Amino acid sequence: MADKFKDDTKFASKTFVFLKKALSAGEKQKIFQPRGPSHFTDGDWAYICECSGDIANFKGDEKIFLKGETVFTHNFFGGLILGHN
Question: Which of 62, 69, 74, 76 has its CA 20 to 30 A from that of 33?
Answer without folding.
Answer: 69
